[in-house]
Amino acid sequence: MQKELSKHSDEQVFFTESEISVDDLMQTCSQKTLKEAYPLAESVAENIIIYDAKNITHLVGNSNQEKRLKTELNHILGKGPGVFIIRNLYEDSVIDQSNGIFDKIIKNEATNKNDHFASGSNTRIWNSLQKVAIENSEAFISYYANNILRVVAESWCGPNSQMTAQVNIVKPGSGMQKPHRDYHLGFQENETVQKYPISSHLMSQHLTLQAVIAHSDMPLESGPTLVMPHSQKYELGYLAWRNKEFQSFFSENAVQLPLKKGDGVFCNPALFHAAGSNSTNNFNRIANLLQISSVFGKAMERIDFIKIIKNIYPALLEHQNNNTLSKRLIENVLVCATDGYAFPTNLDYDTSSYSSVHGLSMFEVTQQALQQSLDLENFTSKLYEHQKIKFAS
Ligand SMILES: [Fe+2]
Predict the structure, then answer these.
(1) 183 vs 270: CA distance, rounded Å
(2) How far apart are CA 195 and CA 176, in angstroms?
(3) Is the pLDDT of residue 2 over 50?
(4) Residue 105: is its pLDDT beyond 50?
């Protein structure tokens, strides 16, 4: 990581597009991913680490083992190739249930929305997180109760991360995306990027984790995401991905692996990547794209957590009271269905701040309500009281 910067003076803080170097990227990406460095993984293919959910799920719940897994994943995303696949992350039944809800949402919206990075006509569901929660509590609960998803999120973003999700259905004939980096700085023009100090370029990649959950099989001809392993370590990359020379390097060297329905791909948002072209005649490639945001950043989409939690609370209470979901699985859902951070708040009014370092988060208010088995009406009034204090002005 220091290699690229060593060419510049240590005092240099701001960079422009004229300082990018495809040779530096090439050197960074020439690293080989070694399986020995990742003992919990199944294999390495095309420099990408591959896990099988079935062989790591038993680590969840044991704090030492969980830490070991998170450490390994964090290493991949930061210092390693920047990308890994988890096979069998979801059972078919969970994906099928979600796909049924997606169809319903698409019919309701009745508009086709183009993907902003690719040619052709794809179908998008923006904010599929909230829309699924409103449409069907059980589909939301079974999807976001996933133990491994939470561990992966925590490995990069720490606890109480915020989930956002969009569905992308890529139709036959849809073109390849241009290679790019993702949110935050990946969504800014070079003119803006160069105003940020290099420390912010590095910070940007720590604020989000990017994921593709395969909701259909993704054979190579359907265009699963192309990635450039290790490219997240090229420090000037946010200024480089629009450059033609870099784009050619990407098209000659990027790699692609087929996915099965229920697999998940996770990557550092600074990894150079691009969704592939769907060259089939009749096969829709369906992905749920997740951005997992650190609580220290701003998420890409605005989520109405009140709407979500009010809709799914009765089902969660029932699962708790009937013992059909463990405390941990319920917590996994709450992480995605509530705001997990106690800030910002109004410290004049949020008196709970005086008894602890911070006031309660919406996550904690909901957790307490479930512990006390409050009915929806009582929970809702607690929630509104909490919001009123937080947003008092
Ligand atoms: Fe992307």
Answers:
(1) 8
(2) 30
(3) no
(4) yes
Distance 314 CA to ligand 1 centre (A): 35
CA of 180 to the centre of ligand 1 (A): 6
Ligand 1 centroid, distance to 327 Cα (angstroms): 34
State which amino acid sits at residue 147: N
Domain 2-293 CATH class label: mainly beta
Tell me: the pLDDT tens digits for 253-296?
A: 999 999 999 999 999 999 999 999 999 999 999 999 999 999 99
Separation of 82 CA from ligand 1 center, angstroms? 14
Tell if the pTM clears 0.90, that is, is over it. Answer: yes
Spacing, Cα 71 to ligand 1 middle (Å): 24
Q: Using CA atoms, how far apart are residues 33 and 284, in angstroms rounded to an integer? A: 32
Rounded to an integer, what distance in angstroms lies between the CA atom of residue 159 and that of residue 340? 8
* Whole-number Å distance between alpha carbons of 170 and 13: 40
Q: Which two tokens stand for residue 324?
A: 């059909």
Answer yes or no: are the C-beta atoms of 80 and 37 closer than 8 Å: yes
Domain layout of the chain by residue ranges: 2-293, 305-390
- pLDDT for res 390: 85
Which of 128-161 are b and which e, b meaning 16 or more Cβ less than 10 Å from the residue's Cβ?
bbbbbbbbbbebbbbbbbbbbbbbbbbbbbeebb
Could you give the 3-state DSSP secondary structure of residue 312? Answer: helix
Report how far ligand 1's centroid is from the alpha carbon of 345 (Å). Answer: 32
313 CA → ligand 1 middle, Å: 33
CA of 207 from ligand 1 middle (Å) equals: 15
CA 314 to chain centre: 27
Considering only residues 67 and 115, tell me which one the structure prediction assigns the higher pLDDT: 67
